[in-house]
Sequence to fold (363 residues):
Amino acid sequence: MRVLHVFRSPVGGLFRHVNDLARSQQALGHEVGILCDSSTGGEAAAKTLESLGKTCSLGVHRRPIPTLPGWGDVAGTRATVQLAKSINADVIHGHGAKGGVFARLAARKLKRPGVYTPHGGALHYDWLKPPGAAFLAAERALRLKGTGLVFVCEFERQLYDRKIGLGGNPSNVVYNGLWPEEFAPRQLAADASDLLFVGEMRQLKGVDVLLQAVAALPAATRPSLTLVGEGRDKAAFETLARDLALGTAARFAGRKNMAEAITLGRTLVLPSRHESFPYVVLEAVGAQVPVIASAVGGIGEILPPDCLVPAGDIQALAAKLQGLATAGQAAQALAASLQAKARERFSVATMAAAVTAFYGSIS
Fold:
């Protein structure tokens, strides 16, 4: 098959998903092309896309794609139609809200199979709030007959059905996957802290909850914490850490790739208020790292209940962190067991094969 993947910004988990999927589909003998935004992602995205362009036989194509809905979407849809036609795409697969708009409209125009993977997107919004109502109404209007839906977790499929409706369209849940080399146990850095956070520095990720939970523990036994990432709320979190008198117990390490970040702490903590199916949890499990996370999104499809805490509950998180001091071998045994299960359930090869088979089922 000749497949065109369409999405907006080449950053984050969505970009990793498309990157992995495109490379694997090429390896399976299909021809793949990419269309994404030209104004975001910076140097890191440019390097990844350059490498991807050497793999994808139908090329990597970039153009300005605005975040918010507007007249630019008309030009974006037209460009998607022209590109899909020029490369004779058999399937047009849109990722995220904006990629979903372009891909579905182009597929209808060209009378070719269209596939949409939300990756959270508009699903984070609420019908009762004005911006959310507009985004969700647009999603419902684009619920075109014949469009296949691929979700990265069961939570996301159920949320989509509840907020927008599957509309009788074929759908499938295909989990994100890891490469074989990502299932190697990590080697801790010499200065590794007790706890590790990796993610965007945003209120959505619950960094404030984590800092307050650490501060709630006795100073004499307080675990050390390394926070990896950048974002709009980082300065506020640094101020909060000072106000809580955490001192050297909380270290902000800036942005790092996951291979380095995962070596900086013994237990990964993800206290998010909202998530879909976060790669950071999957990558930690693959590296045999103990994880504590909020019981939100599809995280419970990766981790057992003993690893989960209610989102936003400072005291529950503090209690779970305090229990780490005596977890010892039990925590490591659980991490090894979760890694073994992940090898069977969460591989890039399985993901690519399942998505590509789904294309065939709707063609």
